[in-house]
Amino acid sequence: MRWYWTGLLGALLFTASSTALPAPRGSGGQVSGPFVHQNLAIYFLHGDSSSGPAPLTLEEALTKKAAKLTETGQVDSLDIENTGDEPIFVQSGDIVKGGQQDRALVASLLIPPHSGRTRIAVYCVEQGRWSGRPGEDPKAFSSAAMALPSRAAKIAIKAPAVPAGAGSKQLEVWKNVKTVQEQLSSNIGAPVASPQSQTSLQLALENEALAKAMAGYVIELQPLGEKGSDIVGYAFAVNGKLSTADIYPSNALFRKMWGKLIKAAAAEAIAARTAGKTDPAPSTNAVDLFLKSAEDGTKADQEVARGIRVETHDSSRALYSVTRPANPASPGLPFIHQNYLAK
User: How far is it, in rounded angstroms, from Cα 46 to Cα 233?
Assistant: First the structure.
């Protein structure tokens, strides 16, 4: 029985004063779907869900002023501080808006209450700007409402560093951001780049014409992810090819993230849309096999923040990563977030 699936073997108990982990639980996991709108196919991943309240998402925490996300003076890092009484979940690929330039967060994290400052890795998704935009704080970030709408960009920020180093990965991220903007503009028939900052991916995703194009996907597919109390993750395919899957410890956390996830998937589908026939959506068996095979590949493990480790498995077919507490409080294989990216 595969642990990525079974709910899921160790779920986080989110409380105001601790992030203790209960004993692992297991049950057979299932894939449902596909649920298709145009060239986007969604699959839901079902399993045991941890009880209790979910942590705040980063967007919720920034809105409540329970999180401070600030510049460090370095392009590749930010400081985050949880000033509130609830833990905060941060997901890899979240785009944060503001500061000297918009960034995408590299690693998924769980920030405990009253954490003090924690240094986190980021990549720039707004090439060229290094000053505050009008009406924004040049030293801090105000929102995290969007996520990277590009499988290639997500792989670029998460893949283990190559010998050329982080600089070449940043160039790859900028290249992917430019490609996404060009594809979105072409497929909606209007430029998405903002006059305020032509290179900002965040501002491009706020474009009104793009929002209208995304609405059909969101209206059709978002309600489906809000029906089952046993949904703990999802996968999606674009143009008949699997792209991404995410799994969470609880249905409550999945539901909090779902609105952002489906918007990012819709934007990715719009960017990849081509005229003519779309290949059939993969079967649920194909999704199951993808998740299983993604755990193969070269393994790497690193501590990305105090008490948090990310394990990656990199193969020619997929990049799999799982975020875990560095010192789990109970036996088993507890986790914070799992992500699967097809290559």
Answer: 7
Instruction: Please name every residue paired with 30 in a beta bridge, in sequence order, or none if there are none.
Output: 46
Instruction: Count Cα atoms within 13 angstroms, Cβ side, for 79.
Output: 13
- Angle between the 166-188 and 251-272 helix axes, to the nearest 10 degrees? 70
Task: Report phi then psi at 292, rounded to 5.
Answer: -65, -50
Cβ atoms of 121 and 89 closer than 8 Å:
no
Place of tokens 């991220």: 173
pLDDT tens digits, 116-162? 999 999 999 999 999 999 999 999 999 999 999 999 999 999 876 55
Q: What is the pTM of this model?
A: 0.89
Cα 279 to Cα 118, 238, 287, distances in angstroms: 44, 9, 15
CA distance 209 to 276: 22
pLDDT digits (tens, 9 = 90+) for 212-235: 999 999 999 999 999 989 999 999
User: Reduced to 3 states, what is the DSSP secondary structure of residue 258?
Assistant: helix
Contacting residues for 327 by C-beta, under 8 A, at least 6 apart = 307
- Count CB atoms within 10 A of the CB of residue 327: 7
DSSP H/E element including 44: strand 40-46
Taking alpha carbons only, the member of 180, 287, 296, 312 closest to residue 236 is 287
Distance CA 60, CA 182 (A): 31
Cα–Cα dist 288/195, whole Å: 43
The alpha carbon dihedral of 100, 106, 110, 116 has a sign of negative
Q: How many residues does the chain have?
A: 343
- Chain Cα centroid distance, residue 211: 19
Give dist(CA 42, CA 281) in Å, integer.
9
